[in-house]
Amino acid sequence: MYDVIIIGAGVSGSATARELSRYRVNACVLEKEEDVCSGTSKANSGIVHAGYDAEPGSLMAKLNVEGNQMMPELSKELDFPFEQKGSFVVCLEEERIPDLEALYKRGVENGVKGMEIITDRQRIFQMEPNLSEQVAAVLYAPTAGIVCPFHLNIALAENAYTNGVEFHFHTEVLAIEKIEDGWMVETNQGRYEAKCIVNAAGVYADRFHNMVSKEKIHITPRRGDYCLLDKSAGKHVSRTIFALPGTYGKGVLVTPTVHGNMLVGPTAIDIEDKEATATTRAGIDELIQKAGMNVRDLPMRQVITSFAGLRAHEDHHEFIIKELEDAPGFIDCAGIESPGLTSCPAIGKMAAGIVRDYLKLEENENFVGTRKGILDPKNLSKEEYKQLIKEDPAYGNIICRCEMITEGEIIDAIRRPLGAKSLDGVKRRTRAGMGRCQSGFCAPRTMEILQRELQIPMTEITKSGGNSKLVVGTNKDTL
Predict the structure, then answer these.
(1) Buried b vs exposed e over 62-75: b needs ≥16 C-beta within 10 Å?
(2) Please, are residues 311 and 60 in contact by the beta-carbon 8 Å criterion?
(3) Which residues pair with 169 in a beta bridge?
(4) Going by C-beta distance under 8 Å and a sequence separation of 6 or more, which residues neighbour residue 369?
(5) pTM (predicted TM-score)
(6) SS3 445
(7) Is 33 exposed, middle or buried (0-12, 13-18, 19+ CB in 10 A)?
(8) Given CA atoms 284, 286, 292, 297 in this order, what sign does their dihedral have?
């Protein structure tokens, strides 16, 4: 029997696992997909929100600001890219400036530092030359930032794993039952037992909550469509550009990414299917139309891919992080939508704290709080890079031309803790396949490396686990 089972290996589950590994605990994470960061956490804006949007006094507001404040140090400890570039909320009509002022007051009440409302158009355009000519004022929040959601999630999970937390992939939770000493979790891989459960299952968190509690919750998958633009468009804006919030949240944003691209999105479309992550023509058209309202001359011809993600929208638009009164030992980590990515360090700390107190856990004196990410040769000097190639020639073999990713980086991604097992696994860890050609050149070569390193047939290699196999047979007889 485990002390604790965490359902879900997204940012909330992985952050909770990492915080729990600070204690002497027998813990595991159950994930239905083949890798961490395969659900809601993989398809979002990568924004570290300042914290002015959430309702004052809400858990969402509290954890947003706490997570924002934790992110700079966490990025150093776990070696993932984070940049505190700031954000603008754009007001296009003078009559709506009071709405901007209300947002400012809300941010002050939430504890956001350094905000200001700028009405000097000359200063606004000095800071962001490509804003709409109609701009009347902006709310500037310097503590906002951008992060790579893949690297953040993977870093949290790797650190939890190296500190003793087990991860079980391809393990889908089917049922949860109360037993004498805790909980029994029925999965497609058999039964697991634990003294307590952390429900961090994203859009499925309501399903597991409702299995054990009389007080029901309801989560709506809210689809968000995005367009990712080439690096040639990456400097069109220098910070995240928001519209004034509406009924469905912060609206369509335009933002640089930590890797030098530009991201436009998301839409907000409520659906029923918890797996429906396909983009639609209507969604993309809406996205482009709304984005162009705040930023002019958007170079949308530079789009290299589009994608969609699902936000776990709970009916009351609030994080649910607590032990259930009618299900002792069952801890919800539910309704984690935006600003969930920003809040995840604080969410993990809070959820782990509830488990710690419930199980009366003692500190793990062997906890290691740091982690080194995959070496990026592009950050080395010419002399250092030459020495690296001399020591390991694989770092001189370019596999992905668009992103200049080497064989050495891909090998590291496969061999490291919780290493990549698929093309998407390699892509999220190294960016091989994320460039202009979208893996048109590098996919076959990456597959060869996966085949060699994992020692599996080419027919077993997948895009993202499950039935997403890429090679189904041969077109010529072999000897």
Answers:
(1) bbbbbbbbbbeebb
(2) no
(3) none
(4) 22, 77, 159
(5) 0.96
(6) helix
(7) buried
(8) positive
Q: According to the model, what pLDDT value does residue 364 have?
A: 97
Please identify which of the residues 49, 151, 209, 236 carries the catalytic annotation. Answer: 49
User: At 118, phi and psi to the nearest 5?
Assistant: -110, 120
Strand partners, 197: 5, 330
Tell me if residue 48 falls in helix, strand or coil. strand
d(CA 63, CA 393): 45
Quickly tell me which residue has 């919750």 as its tokens: 217
Of 287, 292, 258, 242, whose CA–CA distance to 107 is shortest? 242
- Which pair of structure tokens corresponds to residue 417? 């803790």
Q: Tokens 């638009």 appear where?
A: 317
Six-digit token string for 51: 């914290």
Structure-token pair, residue 115: 């905000």
- 161: CB partners within 8 A, 6+ apart: 167, 417, 418
Rounded-to-integer distance, Cα 267 and Cα 352, Å: 33
Could you confirm whether 49 is annotated as catalytic? Answer: yes
CA–CA distance, 407 with 241 (Å, rounded to integer): 36
331, 5 contact by CB (below 8 A): no
* Residues 137/100, Cβ–Cβ less than 8 Å: yes
* 367: number of Cβ within 10 Å: 15
Residues paired with 333 in a beta bridge: 321
Task: Report the amino acid identity of residue 321.
Answer: I
Residue ranges in the chain whose pLDDT is less than 50: 247-249
* Whether the Cβ atoms of residue 397 and residue 407 lie closer than 8 Å to each other: yes
Cα–Cα distance for residue pair 148/146, rounded to 1 Å:
7
Provide the token pair at 111. 């504890």
Alpha-helical (H) ranges within 360-434 are 382-391, 407-415, 423-430
pLDDT (tens digit, 9 = 90+) per residue, 79-121?
A: 999 999 999 999 999 999 999 999 999 999 999 999 999 999 9
- The H or E element that residue 269 is part of is strand 269-270
Q: What is the pLDDT of residues 280-295, one digit of tens each?
A: 999 898 888 887 889 9
Pull the structure tokens for residue 94: 């003078």
C-alpha 322/C-alpha 109 separation (Å) is: 24
Contacts of 235 (CB under 8 A, 6+ apart): 256
Nearest to 25 by CA among 353, 259, 284, 248: 353
Three-class secondary structure assignment of 295-332: ECCCCHHHEEEEEEEEEEEECCCCCEEEEECCEEEEEE
Query: In this structure, what token pair is assigned to residue 91?
Result: 């007001």
CB 224 within 8 A of CB 31: no
